[in-house]
Fold this protein.
Amino acid sequence: MARKISITPDIIKNAAFELAREEGLASVTARRLADKAGCSTQPIFRVYEKMEQLHADVFEMAIHFFSEFYENEKQKEQISDKPFVQFGVLYIEFALSEPELFKMLFLSKNRYGRSLYELLNGSTGAFVREMNRAKTEGVRDPGDLFMKMWIFIHGAACMTITGDYDLPREETIRLLIDTYEKSAK
């Protein structure tokens, strides 16, 4: 009689994602993952020939997590009617609440074949929606406007991870609105 396999691929992926979320993707080693999943390394290597394959799956899970975070938070409140402001605030708040996932997605050189544009747009088309909103408002070059805002948005998000960004949310919103209004002209 064959032994029942109790450690499924989903258990392995979910444990790897939680480990990456808590300590970063580099912490997802076979041994650490086996401890987290409550198994030996054998089931891990039965599902994944190489850890790089598992890391790529965890990265995809992180993209999905970011998209869900953005959409869920966006539904809670309308922060501003100005394009890129809500997007920026939620991006900064993602860095604050999920620093390890933020580093994996937005500060890593290895994006598993994904561009920054694809990561920001996610599965929801959030970035494209913001670009279209700016066009609708009469912004001649939404891409240029976004780049000006992106310097502040990404910089602030990175500073939250190091503890160097401590502006209140209201001040962040005001700065983003000011940047939008001055740059959209």
